Amino acid sequence: MNHKQLITGLIAALLAVVGLSAPAFAEVSGETAYVLNTLLFLMCGFMVMFMAAGFAMLESGMVRSKNVATICVKNIALYSLAGLMYYLIGYDLMYGIDEGGYIGSFSLFWSPDDAAALAEEGANFDAGYAATSDWFFQMVFVATAASIVSGTVAERVKLWPFLIFVCFLTAIIYPIQGSWEWGAGWLDAQFGFSDFAGSTLVHSTGGWAALVGAIIIGARKGKYTSDGKINPMPGSSMPLATLGTFILWLGWFGFNGGSQLALGSGADAVAVANIFANTNTAAASGVVAAMIASQIMFKKVDLTMALNGAIGGLVSITAEPLAPTMGLSVIIGAIGGVLVVVSVPLLDKLKIDDVVGAIPAHLVCGIWGTLAVPLSNGDASFGGQLVGIIAIGLFVSIASAIVWTVLKFTIGVRADEEDEVMGLDRAELGMEAYPEFGSGGSQRL
Predict the structure, then answer these.
(1) How far is the C-alpha of 116 from the C-alpha of 208, rounded, in Å?
(2) Which residue of 88, 118, 158, 270 has the fewest CB atoms within a 10 Å radius of its CB?
(3) Domain boundaries, the chain
(4) What is the pLDDT of residues 148-166, one digit of tens each?
(5) What are the residue ranges in the chain where pLDDT is below 70?
(6) Residue 132 CB: number of other CB atoms within 10 A?
(7) Ramachandran angles phi, psi of 127, nearest 5°
(8) What is the C-alpha to C-alpha distance for residues 293 and 309, in angstroms, rounded to an integer?
């Protein structure tokens, strides 16, 4: 008996133990595909959910210690609000759209249609997936878009106005533009716009909302001086920011891999594996390229640039992580890493204060990644991609500007100068993230 026969025999024996036959292994049934597809959504969904921890850690490390507790509150609150608002309005608005349409249904309280899965017998699964698994997977994406905003406007935006903006972003702004492509709306039907896992639909959307917010709210006190000087404001913990970046990198495998939307065949399994490999390669090249670029531009390697280089590479490959070769993924990710390094000082020249560098990593690299899709995907065109980028950019920017402006002139969005100097932890929460090292630490010793 040769090795092939031995392995085949072992597989047959194992299948017999669990009540399956060899033919069932060779040709997956509709119900088995249903289970595998659902499992992909759920497993990749909780990987993307874990990115919420990555964003919280990255942002906590990048803000000053007097604002760490506040950024933690914002991150757990925005994730929670995203889940509730996407259930209340967002999902139906995103996927209740007619093919080629512009806006979906405003019906409240999404309800899953999983009657077949709940039937005791005679269920026809038709190689689909559980509706609730799809809802969960889509929900964690909208939470990611909201997380991008929190880092940019940190240290000077008030808690409740920010959370009100998150409600509008996750319930209305994100679902409407998302429906234009993922809901088979007008961008998909008329222009063949392609965004596999959301370089534009998720990351640029969060980036546009963050950019508009940063402009309307203004820079942190003391960041820019009248004589053009830029004052660095180092974060509280670079190890924490680094660990957060690694967690985001890990979660991105679920972000991109789960967007294959199926695991019911060998071809789907190969596709998910290729997506994982391309995603990792783009991130790695983004780090190296950012390090080289920062060495050339600033005569030293900047850790924050390296961290955002990883994110920039990940965002860049997200629009098309399946079709490129690993070699092309290296190039796409590396360009993303360089764009991050180039964009950060440009924002400073424009006096746009982005605390964590989310606008370069998510907005700029999101645009680049979306434009790069036709390099490997023959079904996409540069014209169609450009239309999608412009349309979504205009819609998200205008809608975000309206919400931010209304909040500014009603309840206010900017913390008082005294509160900002003291730190939002004490001003809004009445606590400190690191009390032993805070302003009152010496009194407690």
Answers:
(1) 40
(2) 118
(3) 31-105+136-223+245-429
(4) 999 999 999 999 999 999 9
(5) 1-28, 115-124, 127, 438-445
(6) 16
(7) 55, 35
(8) 10
